[in-house]
Amino acid sequence: MLSVQRNLAPGGALALAALLCATLPVAAQESADVVDFEEHLGDVVPADIRLVDEDGNPVLLGDLVDRPTILNFVYFECPGICTPLLTEIADILGKSRLDPAKQPFQVVSVSFNPEDRPETAKAKRENYLAQLSRPLPPETWRFLTAEKADIERLAGAAGFHYKRVGQEYVHPGGLIMLSPERKIVRYLYGTQFLPFDFEMGVYEASQGTVRPTTARLLRFCFSYDPAGRTYVFNLAKVVAVVMLTSVACFVAFLVFSTRKMRRKES
After folding, report:
1. How many CB atoms lie within 10 A of CB 86?
2. Residues 98 and 121 in one domain
3. Are 245 and 20 in contact (CB under 8 A)?
4. Alpha-carbon distances of 44 from 172, 210, 246, rounded to whole Å
5. How many CB atoms lie within 10 A of CB 84?
6. Which CATH number do you get for residue 117?
7. Domain shared by 240 and 217, yes or no
8. pLDDT of residue 92
9. What is the pLDDT along the chain (266 residues), one digit of tens a residue?
10. Is the CB of residue 9 less than 8 Å from the CB of residue 17?
11. How distant is the alpha carbon of residue 206 from its chain centre?
C-alpha cells in the first residue's frame, strides 16, 4: 500500500494546526513534497491532451471538459487509496442533491499508469456506476486512460506529483475541480469529502470561481511518514517555528523599547 493518504489529526489538533500555521511567516513555509499536490489555482489545463475513453476511442481533453468537471487521478491496480477514493466518489454521487439533468457536471477518473487499458477502464466504470445509490446517466462518470506523455502533461498541468516504486506508485489522493473552460478552481484533499464541499466545488466550477484551499495552510504543519504511509502532525516543527517567531517578536520589542527610552533621555 504505497499510496499517500492525507489522514489528518483529530479536530482539536487540526484546529490548533490551522491557528498556528495561519500565523507563520512566508519564509518559514517549505516547498511541497515531491509526492503531493502542487496547487495551480486559476491555471487552464491544455485542451490538446489526448485521452482514450472506455471503448478505446481517442478524445481530446478540450472536447471532454465541456461542463464542470471533477478530475481525479488513479490507477486501476492500486493496492492503496485509489479504491477508497473511488468508493467515496460513488458514495458522494449517491448522496449529492446535484442533478446532472438540471446542473450538468461530470467526474473524470484518469489512470496515470500508461499500462492500464480501456477494457479495464470500462469494467471499473461499470462496477462503480453499479454502486451508486441513485440512477445517474453513465456519462456522469468517465474512466479514461492515456499514453505516458499525455499523462505527464495532464498531471503536470494539474499539479499532481507521483512516482513509481517497483510495480506500484506513490501518490496523493484528492479531487481537482475544473470549470468548463478547463480552469482549475479548487482542490479537495484526501479520500473523504463532505457532500456540501463537493456540491460547492461543482457550483464554483460552473461559475469559474477560484477558491483558495484551506488545507494548503496546513501543509507546513504535516509531514509524510513513509513507514506509516500517511501524513502526521509535525509538532516539533510547529513548536520550533512558534518559538523562533516569539523570540523574534521579543527581540523586536526590546529594540523598539530601547530606542524609545533613548529618545526620552535625549
Report:
1. 23
2. yes
3. no
4. 21, 12, 41
5. 16
6. 3.40.30.10
7. no
8. 93
9. 454 444 444 444 444 444 444 444 333 223 334 789 999 999 999 999 999 999 999 999 999 999 999 999 999 999 999 999 999 999 999 988 888 888 899 999 999 999 999 999 999 999 999 999 999 999 999 999 999 999 999 999 999 999 999 989 999 999 999 999 999 999 999 998 888 889 989 999 999 988 776 544 444 555 444 444 444 556 676 677 678 778 888 788 777 777 777 777 76
10. yes
11. 19
> All 3 cell numbers of residue 53?
475513453
d(CA 117, CA 147): 10
Instruction: Return the H-helix or E-strand segment holding 184.
Output: strand 184-189
256 is in which domain, residue-wise?
A: 235-265
**Contact between residue 159 and residue 213 where contact means Cβ atoms under 8 Å apart:** no
As a whole number of angstroms, the distance between CA 137 and CA 241 comes to 51
Q: What is the pLDDT of residue 2?
A: 53
Contact 177, 134 (CB under 8 A): no
145 and 226 both lie in a single domain: yes
What is the structure's pLDDT at 118? 97
Q: What pLDDT, on the 0 to 100 scale, is given for residue 52?
A: 98
Per DSSP (E only), the strands in 42-116 are: 50-52, 58-60, 69-74, 106-111
Residues 6+ apart with CB under 8 A from 5: 80, 81, 84, 173, 190, 191, 229, 230, 231
Q: State the cell numbers at 191.
A: 479520500
**Residue 149 and residue 104: Cα distance in Å, rounded?**
30
Do 222 and 17 touch, CB atoms closer than 8 A? yes
The reply to whether 258 and 191 lie within a common domain is no
Place of cell 469494467: 123
Any domain includes 110: yes
Is-contact 190 231, C-beta < 8 A? no
